[in-house]
Design a protein that fits this description.
The protein has 18 helices and no strands. The protein has about 500 residues and is an all-alpha fold. Helix 2 crosses helix 8.
């Protein structure tokens, strides 16, 4: 597999590991923070906090989607990265401030739409996070585009640790929902300062104009990301709009928060994949780029056992993390984790299209998701409630992943290996059944997850998924050896 047996592939996987480990602090700290908040705020208060954060995250994600992939692509290709980086950082600040003001104006109408009078105040407070996060993300995207994965990982790790500490301290001090929001704002400021320290000063000094089609790329990728943002957040909002209570929204949001792990891997892996593919294509290494794309799609298949393990243990995980009041989130998590894995394949596929210079195709494969999900929610939520919302998300995610995978095949004749899919299905069924049938009390559920994860790796080895060269390269990567791996 080229991801482990070539220098560029191993560097990409090393960077993925570093940044993903930093991103793993998010679910780990989020579990602690969410467990704390659900007990402090209850379903009603946590539901209101979830609506506030989800609204602001939508806006922030939309802004960052305009810049993130285009920045990584063009910084990775450029001989002189500073003009590109400076342009993106300055523009991110301007748009972030404009979005903050817009939220202040629209806070009252949104509060009326959701029939939550207190929502307007919380939206205005949380809007302060928008310019801070946008500029911090811009700095970090430049770091990743330059290949400075260690710095990107450090900035992200700082964000999640500061966020957990501030939220818990401020809420415990009696600031309730406002304290949680101030903790989020403080973590964005921490990430901004760390990223700026690693990248260095001078990004706000006027640079030469950048003769790159970043506006075109940004606009198309913005549309694509907007579609994904609407699709991934639509279930929670449609549940509330179609008659769900705030408590039900809080339970659904809790299930969503536990299904984030594949999404974190997806963002990390696809960002570094884009940077690596862009460099290869800029150097006219098309065949190596196709091999890398094939291996990237193969990696998405290896996440199937992860989804199966979490789905089987979903009720136990929810009970430990959130408490008895949130037990209805268990069946929702079992569905949403499957949809999250499908989203990984979708993200990898549209990343390949972006690197190939076809950003318009990303819109082609994401825009229909919004319409399909909207129709599905309108039909199933009044009938099945929360389960209907989760079911629509899973089905539409899977259809989108299949369609985008077919688009990559049409582009480069690249497809995930059928053998890997079948072996992943078998391993997933075995460990998923074991996860469901093996009862574990309390915190022992996390030991079960680790054991079954190790059994998944052993299962892949037993069925012959890992080749000798890959195992040798993996050992070398883990041991941080610098000499090339000898393949047989």
């Amino acid at each position: 597999m080229g991801l482990l047996t070539t220098t560029m592939g191993r560097r990409m996987m090393d960077g993925t590991a570093r940044i993903f480990l930093a991103e793993l602090l998010f679910p780990l700290t989020a579990l602690i923070t969410t467990g704390f908040l659900t007990r402090q705020l209850g379903p009603q208060g946590y539901g209101l906090l979830a609506l506030t954060l989800t609204t602001i995250i939508w806006i922030e994600s939309a802004i960052n989607s305009f810049f993130t992939k285009a920045t990584i692509k063009f910084v990775g290709e450029a001989d002189d990265w500073k003009p590109v980086g400076a342009m993106v950082i300055r523009l991110s600040l301007k748009i972030g401030i404009a979005a903050m003001v817009l939220v202040w104006i629209l806070a009252a109408p949104l509060s009326a739409l959701f029939k939550e009078p207190d929502l307007a105040f919380y939206l205005r407070v949380c809007a302060l996070d928008i310019p801070l996060l946008c500029v911090g993300q811009a700095y970090r995207n430049v770091l990743i585009g330059r290949g400075n994965y260690r710095a990107g990982a450090a900035a992200r790790a700082g964000r999640w640790l500061v966020r957990m500490a501030l939220v818990m301290v401020l809420v415990q001090a009696g600031f309730s929902i406002t304290g949680a929001l101030l903790g989020v704002i403080g973590s964005s400021l921490a990430e901004l300062l760390l990223s700026r320290w690693y990248l260095g000063a001078g990004m706000f000094v006027k640079q030469a104009p950048v003769p790159l089609p970043i506006q075109r790329y940004g606009a198309l990728l913005f549309l694509s990301s907007i579609c994904l943002i609407f699709f991934n957040g639509m279930d929670l909002f449609m549940l509330k709009i179609l008659g769900g209570t705030t408590a039900q929204a809080g339970i659904y949001s809790a299930a969503q928060s536990l299904s984030l792990l594949p999404g974190l891997f997806s963002w990390t892996f696809s960002s570094l994949l884009l940077a690596t593919l862009s460099r290869q294509l800029a150097d006219c290494q098309q065949e190596r780029a196709r091999e890398l794309a094939r291996d990237a799609l193969r990696v998405t298949m290896l996440l199937l056992p992860v989804a199966a393990i979490i789905a089987g243990a979903a009720p136990e995980i929810v009970g430990v993390v959130f408490g008895a009041a949130f037990l209805p989130a268990g069946p929702l998590l079992a569905l949403l984790i499957v949809g999250a894995v499908s989203n990984v394949m979708l993200m990898v596929s549209i990343t390949i299209m972006t690197a190939a210079g076809l950003p318009a195709r990303t819109v082609t494969f994401t825009a229909p998701l919004v319409l399909l999900a909207l129709v599905g929610h309108l039909v199933l939520i009044p009938w099945l409630g929360q389960q209907g919302a989760a079911l629509v998300t899973v089905v539409v995610s899977s259809l989108g992943a299949i369609a985008a995978g077919a688009g990559v095949y049409a582009l480069w004749k690249v497809w995930p290996p059928v053998g890997t899919f079948l072996r992943s299905l078998v391993v997933g069924l075995v460990v998923g059944a074991a996860s469901m049938l093996w009862p574990t009390p309390g915190l022992f559920v996390f030991a079960k997850l680790i054991v079954l994860g190790m059994l998944s790796l052993l299962g892949y080895w037993w069925v012959g998924e890992f080749r000798h060269g890959e195992l040798a390269a993996a050992r070398s990567l883990l041991l941080r050896k610098t000499e090339p791996v000898q393949l047989t």
